[in-house]
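User: Fold this one for me? It's Peroxisomal membrane protein PMP34.
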Amino acid sequence: MGSKDLKLLDVFSYESLVHAVAGAMGSVTAMTVFFPLDTARLRLQVDEKRKAKSTPAILSEIIKEEGLLAPYRGWFPVICSLCCSNFVYFYCFHSLKATWLQGQRSTPGRDLVIGIAAGVVNVLVTTPLWVVNTRLKLQGAKFRNEDIQPTHYRGIMDAFAQIMQQEGVGALWNGTFPSLLLVLNPAVQFMIYEGLKRHLLRGVNRELSSVEVFLIGAIAKAIATTITYPLQTVQSVLRFGQHGRPADQSKLLNSLRSVMYLLINRVRKWGMLGLFKGLEAKLLQTVLTAALMFLLYEKIASTTFRVMGVKRTVTSH
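Assistant: Here's what I get for Peroxisomal membrane protein PMP34.
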């Protein structure tokens, strides 16, 4: 069998499929548990006139004004998007890793490059899903900012249809530019996670304990999120599609000008801390979600390989 055939087998391997399914299942479960925290974060990012408060205070306001189930508004489209997104990311990450390393030891630099490549594929494939789920999640919300126009989508497919009809197909890729920059988030996260994992398993033949997986997953996500948070805020605003623009500028701003305008405008209004509005809610949500996701992912993958009698390839230790 030639080298091309071997590389093709690495890309379309059973092992990559197990990693992808385990990652998708772990992320869906973890996001469901901590979904209200993501609701609080998104409101703080998008609603400029909502005062930054503690996460419990924001959630209390939302429940009081919009009902008990409001923190779970938009759960289904978010879970669908997250499931697809993490499936694509985990599949690409592990298949690219298997193809490149061919059983060799990995390094932080290689993990970062592979993570960025997997992230780019993921962004280009799944951005329309994230645009739709952002709109649906904020539909019916009571905003402090009166300039935000209400939307009326009847579901995922109706949202797709209305956005394409009213704003054009390109609107489904709103926020793609900051999203491409934000591939650094999961790439840095996976680089740190795999690096810490290699360090803990160096010289020993064992699996990580649940506590170890949870802690290194939390540390990796906390660092990645803090570094990239300003761009995440811009990404949310662009996906929502109702960001203000200076009157003297063209309506069709290119992606770079949109990002720079939103970043500069936020700094002018609230100072540098304005770039990190909602970071507490984001860290609380994303760190706990990522830690639980990695824990479930490792357990599901390990159990699946054991039950199926397939030896797990260890290229990261």
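One thing worth pointing out: Residues 14-46 form the longest helix (33 residues).
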